[in-house]
Amino acid sequence: MSEHEEASELLRLRRDKLAAWLARGIDPFGRAFPDTASISALLADFLEGREARLAGRILSIRDMGKSLFAHLQDSSGKMQIYANLQTLGERFADLKLLDLGDIVGVEGECFRTKTGEKTLRVRHSELLSKSLRPLPSKWHGLHDVEARYRQRYLDLIVNPEVRETFHQRIRIIREIRRFLEERGFLEVETPMMQPVPGGAAATPFSTFHEALGIPLYLRIAPELYLKRLLIGGFERIFELNRNFRNEGISRKHNPEFTMLEAYWAFADFERMAELLESLVCHLAETVCGGLRLSSSTFPSIDLQPPWPRKRFADCLRDATGKEWFSLSPEQRRKLAEELGVELLPNAQDIDVTRHTFEKLVEARTAGPLFVTHLPTELVPLARQNREDPSVVDVFELIIGGQEVAPGYSELNDPIVQRERLEHQVGEETQKLDEDFLLALEYGMPPAGGIGLGIDRLVMLLTGRESIRDVIFFPLLRPREIP
RNA sequence: GGGCAGGUAGCUCAACGGCAGAGCAGGUGCCUUUUAAGCACUUGGUUCAGGGUUCGAAUCCCUGCCUGCCCA
After folding, report:
1. Which nucleotide's C1' atom has the smallest distance to the CA of A14?
2. Tell me, what's the ipTM?
3. What is the crossing angle of helices A434-441 and A223-231, to 10°?
């Protein structure tokens, strides 16, 4: 214990209680207490007189002298327990020593109190773990956002809605896997440490492999490896795991985030849009109980399919009132600024288009909307449209003013792919993944692909406004333990 | 990176230039069906850190740290 902690009376008293348990011959960090019932199951199937065995954390205590009530919380719910001197004899004093936060195992019989609350009359109890620090207030919960993120376990103990959000996240991810596997997709794992980070335009985290003496990068996307698997003969694959981007942190960005990428050989972006539409509807129905969502900016989002498709150029025409791509770059820039799009002085023409789209279309679209046929320059890994090579056969799914998922007809022409990547590399001082280009030359089947940002999807489906509310341990600047 | 807001008891929050407080939690006592249990008494503070202004600073000013929101 540090000097500072010794000064705290609350901590000292807990240590005194610990000593009191030891003095009574009881190990305050007990052993296993197996074969317990789940509280929610016991409550759902409640029978007076039924014997039950429970384990959990003490959340409240009402000590009445020769009897006491407490609430016990396990992973499924919470239930009142009751103990008195008459039933327990000299062991009753053990219960009187309990603190809020202690973890106990109890055995006894179910009954209802005068007021009808389902309760367990304790006949036997064991201390399973002594809590040496006070829990946050059971009534007010834990509101301090910094404490909630830094000590998520406390957030989870005292804030039921936080537990529920993470349970929903878990269900969403499980349902995605189930949905794709039912449709013949195989989950695969590809390198997270890559010699050449590719598949997206983002700054990677770098690291170093000592034995090989080579620099490595945490992946910014699995895309180029998944395509190698298409080349290798896997026809329906997905990877649902972490990507890492060395960028700022915000309400919508965490440096590590979870992404689904799925590829389907011999399909195209249209087919992927249908797949995505049915996947998201399935998730909304199984996890949110319906196809209606709401966010603070878009109070009513209706996911009822089919979802509309609209070409990128048409979106910009409707938002700006002009045939955007018929204008000169100078005219585009002027128009964007007139419409309130803030642009850096050195913004390229394509940046003007991108920012204008983000500000005037994406941010204002409740969706769901599939924006299709983006400019080729924006999407270097997608197939160009046959009729109009200035656009690519892709969609961008927008829901709730946010980009939720892109989908492509994947580019499988190794010569065009090389040109487009070289063009991109020239701009961004990235390295070219020659190994990927080599693989492409052996022939990759035409394929459809999608990427789905899981954290933002969970935000959307659970109505959370910050990515930190859907990631257990969001990145914060480390701090010394107080 | 820029702007704004915030950091006070274990938790939730007051006090806004004049004795640092409340509720809950904690402690002691009473209480064998309570449930935000109750009643009585009661402990608990580096007011984020450092500097400055002032007779006097949680409060005003400066610097730093951390967090949130907005913008880039």
Report:
1. B26
2. 0.91
3. 30
